[in-house]
Amino acid sequence: MKTVERRSGFGYDPNRLIISWARRMAEYKNLNILFEDLDRLYSILSKSDKPMMLLVAGKAHPGDNAAKEHIQKTIKSFAGKLSGFAIFVPNYDIALARAMVQGSDLWLNTPEFGREACGTSGMKAIANGVLNATVADGWAAEVDWQDKGWVIDHTRIGNSIYELLENEIGPEFYERNQDDMPTKWISKMKNSINLSKNYSTSRMLEEYSSLLYV
What we know:
Layout: H1 2-8, E1 17-25, H2 38-45, E2 52-60, H3 65-79, E3 86-88, H4 94-103, E4 106-109, H5 120-127, E5 131-135, E6 149-152, H6 157-174, H7 183-195, H8 201-213
Parallel strand pairs: 1-2, 1-4, 2-3, 4-5, 5-6
């Protein structure tokens, strides 16, 4: 939270469900699909009994004008309708990426289907116990997300995200036991962390050694 506040100038309640979208900015990463219905998104984020905060960060290639336009549109949306419930965090770098994967509850991945080669930000998220809501593309297509996260319908990404947030993700995060603990959410976090060993450099190097060189 402190890193986001320092860089953006805005604070937020960390007890809300913290949703993050952060990665290299490119048109196929499909950031703007989140904002295709601002009224509906605002209604979901601002529910008094299930409040959410959306954090967005990313850096565009200097020559990628389309990605730069996406950033400008996002900033305008956050300064208008979504003010108080969404923050664009500038100057995306390794330090900010680390802070966001450590301080988020949900990681969004919204690429155009068939265009994502990998999607490493989601791998970083699972290693930190952050649950994914993702299009099943790139690395995410290999995973059985049952009890680990949520799959976004790639044929209707925007509406699918809204439905998941409103009907599944929000209610599950705010469902608490007598000790005020979200037991279902915590179970998914544990499953998510356990999954991360399959997507680590250690596993990759071990397989290179055993399968190629031994």
